[in-house]
Amino acid sequence: MPYLQVPKGTRDIMGKEIVLWRKVEEVVYETAKNFGYEEIRTPIFESTELFTRGVGEGTDIVQKEMYTFTDKGGRSLTLRPEGTAPVMRAYLEHGFAVQQPRVKWFYLGPMFRYERPQAGRMRQFHQFGFEAIGFDSPACDAEIILIAWRIYERLGLHKLSLEMNSLGCPSCKFRYIETLQQFLQREIHSLCDTCKVRLEKNPLRVLDCKNEGCQTIFQSPSFPRLQDFLCEECSKHQETLLATLRFLDIPFSINPRLVRGLDYYTRTAFEIKTGELGAQDAVGGGGRYDNLSQALGGPKVAGVGFAAGIERMVLLLNKMGQGLHALETLVYLAPLDGEGELHLLVLGRRCEELGIPFYMDFADKTLKYHLKKAQKMKVRFVVLVGKAELQNSLFLLKDMFSGEQWTLSQEELLKKLQEEKNSA
Ligand SMILES: [Zn+2]
Ligand SMILES: [Zn+2]
Predict the structure, then answer these.
(1) Are 310 and 24 a contacting pair, CB within 8 Å?
(2) What is the distance in A from the centroid of ligand 2 to the CA of 210?
(3) What spacing in Å lies between the alpha carbon of 204 and ligand 2's midpoint?
(4) N or C: which end of the chain has fewer CB within 10 A?
(5) How far apart are the C-alpha atoms of 208 and 319, rounded to whole Å?
(6) DSSP 77-88
(7) Least confident segment among 229-233, 274-278, 354-358
(8) CATH code matching the domain that covers 331-423, chosen among 3.20.20.140, 1.20.1070.10, 3.50.50.60, 3.40.50.800
(9) Gap from CA of 191 to ligand 2 centroid (Å)
């Protein structure tokens, strides 16, 4: 019988790659702590209605990409395709809107979308995101962008660029969409089939179509641009935000076609790219969602946030040659017989108490096996105990890099390992 395999679009994350995952996660936690954002963990599945209302009926996510199922109680549930709607659901459900309307939260975890799998895009994928709810100041949009920026910088991605746009409020958006639809109706013969459908259901989505025919239409000098339709309040918000970004020394460009696929975005939309590997890779994006709470039946609540995919980051870091050593084991404990096993496990316990990372193998293998394995693991030190060492309560320490070796008591050995660990 053939082995069972993981479902298409999912994968096991293991081995050396885990080091990069941990690195991304640690940077996210560290940056969140520094900026005063608290973690929130929402369920993996939610009622389907949360996403049809919170993400929007006309979006690709709701139309094609959701993992929706009926449970044994007859409820329609959906594996979360994104993190913002669940966070807003939690905010409303726990009464924050009334009791403590301003919160700063972040999340990290798996999301699910039925998409065509490709490098860095999976059906079970992982995202981290930051949400500042209850704040309408444009400086808060800038803080969110700064957090994203800092996370990428800390991860060693330096060739960063930021694209900015404003989607306006419902009234600016409504006026723009009307004009856009009229314009596109006249050009309908050049639109791709997908965009012909979008034109009716979600016309803003036409703007991020990659089809050549559609791209040609966008190049037209008379193509309507959203920022020409912004009301006074919305353009003031945008101007203040851009001025704040200049103060923060975060360079940006305006991309009038940056729309993002989700209905609840208002005003600020942004995307961050890196040129670290030559071509421009999008590494994250976000924006303001002042209409999300109302879409979910709540009061009017401002909000701004961003999300980024961890798979993409890990892929980039891996290509940049980071994190190629898996475990950071300092010492390999190699017993040669049963009595050696006892003594080395006692030593291992002391190592762990002192924070010295060790790996213990067992005595059913030869000295040759142990040395070969230690070498393969790139472990600096090996500790051996033979008959002679056992009789005198001593240990043989071998430096695999220099070839030197010492016979030491347990306390001398631990002292040396601690010094090595601190100087590493
Ligand atoms: Zn407006
Ligand atoms: Zn198109």
Answers:
(1) yes
(2) 6
(3) 11
(4) N
(5) 27
(6) EEE-S-SHHHHH
(7) 274-278
(8) 3.40.50.800
(9) 5
DSSP codes, 312-366: HHHHHHHHTT---------EEEEESSHHHHHHHHHHHHHHHHTT--EEE--TTS-
Q: Which ligand is nearest to the CA of 237?
A: 1
User: What pLDDT is attached to residue 140?
Assistant: 97
Chain centroid offset of residue 361 CA? 35
CA of 291 relative to ligand 1 center, distance in Å: 12
Residue found under tokens 């030869």 = 366
Using the mean position of ligand 1's atoms as its centre, give its distance from the Cα of residue 41 in Å.
33
Listed range (62-66, 79-83, 195-199, 348-352) with the worst mean pLDDT = 195-199
- Give residue 205 CA to ligand 2 midpoint distance, Å: 9
Confidence at residue 262, expressed as pLDDT on a 0 to 100 scale: 63
Distance 286 CA to ligand 2 centre (A): 23
How far does the centroid of ligand 1 lie from the alpha carbon of residue 238, in Å?
10
Phi-psi region of 215 (alpha: psi -120 to 50; beta: other; left: phi over 0): alpha
* Confidence (pTM): 0.87
Write the pLDDT tens digit of every residue in 41-51.
999 999 999 99
CATH of range 17-169+231-319; options 3.40.50.300, 3.40.50.1000, 3.30.930.10, 3.90.1150.10: 3.30.930.10
Given a contact cutoff of 8 angstroms between Cβ atoms, the answer to whether 198 and 206 are in contact is yes
CA of 352 to the centre of ligand 1 (A): 59
Q: Indicate which ligand has the atom closest to the C-alpha of 229.
A: 1
Q: Tell me the pLDDT tens digit for each residue of 120-154.
A: 789 999 999 999 999 999 999 999 999 999 999 99
Q: Which ligand is nearest to the CA of 290?
A: 1
